[in-house]
Amino acid sequence: MSLYLIERLKQLGVKHIFGVPGDFNLEFLDYIEDDDTLQWVGNANELNAAYAADGYARIKRSLSCIVTTYGVGELSALNGIAGAMSERVPVLHIVGVPSEALQQKHALLHHTLGDGVFSHFSKMSGPISAAVAKLHTSPTGTDGLPYEVDRVLSAALTQCRPVYLTFPTNLHHVKVPSKNLLTPLPHPHSAPLTPAALLEEHVTDSQAEKELELVVGEIQRLFEASHDPVVLVDACAERFGVEGE
């Protein structure tokens, strides 16, 4: 699973990964260190890593990645991730979390609130993420994990916003199918058909297209009715790669 995730990042042009080592992400970091084309950029703290990832995505005009550890690490990155959400910057936030077995036992662990609940911090990241994926073993096994990775990556690329991915320690070395790697992910500047909130409500393609037509039609109406139209272009033109248009 670690190799699949790394290969997807490389396909998207990621060459540097930012973050801070922690006990729940160390084995994943070994895979990064072993890759000759990736460079691990260790930061003094997670907030610095988040801002570095934000800047990296802006300069590269593509996805960036930050790796933190459960609880104490990921929370320190939230200010930077929230900024990326506001500024529409695609950042993949990978959080190493305790094994599924420990979570299911509601184990008393460090970096928790001591109540056996392991979802507190992921809920905090939800509102500042275009998509959230909590990798886990399903009743049918682990073959679905690549689809979850691709889902959040696609959301980051099409919405130009950060996404959140938890990676339990027991899944770092698990074998998963590699066939999805043959299917390209969306272009980093692909504009979404509809806002993220609507996508979460399972809006169909036809509904999304209808919404898009209504918006474009209203813009056209206002433009044609204006005597001296002025179009104000903001940073989103750069985020979605449409400066030429």
Rg on CA atoms, Å: 19 Å
> What helical percentage do the residues reach?
40-55%
Total domain units = 2
CATH class category name of the largest domain: Alpha Beta
CATH topology description of the largest domain: Rossmann fold
Low-confidence stretches: 193-201
* Biggest sheet architecture: 6 strands, parallel
Extended strand count = 6
Proportion of strand residues = 5-15%
Average per-residue pLDDT, rounded, comes to 91
Terminal-residue CA separation: 39 Å
The run of helices and strands is HEHEHEHHEHHEHEHHH
Q: So, the CATH homologous superfamily of the largest domain?
A: Thiamin diphosphate (ThDP)-binding fold, Pyr/PP domains
Number of continuous helical runs: 11
Provide a quick synopsis of the model.
This protein has 245 residues and is an alpha/beta fold.
Question: How would you portray this structure in words?
Answer:
The protein has helices spanning 2-11, 26-34, 46-60, 72-76, 78-87, 100-104, 120-125, 145-159, 196-200, 205-225, 236-239; strands at 16-19, 39-42, 64-69, 91-97, 132-134, 163-168. The chain has a 6-stranded parallel β-sheet, sandwiched between helices. It is 43% helix and 12% strand. Residues 193-201 have low confidence and may be disordered. The radius of gyration is 19 Å and the shape is elongated. The chain has 245 residues and is of the alpha/beta class. The termini are far apart. Helix 3 packs parallel to helix 5. The chain is built from 11 helices and 6 strands. The chain folds into 2 domains: 2-182, Thiamin diphosphate (ThDP)-binding fold, Pyr/PP domains (Rossmann fold), CATH 3.40.50.970; 196-239, no CATH class. Pfam families: TPP_enzyme_N. Residues 4-108 form the Thiamine pyrophosphate enzyme N-terminal TPP-binding domain. Keywords: Decarboxylase, Lyase, Magnesium, Metal-binding, Thiamine pyrophosphate.
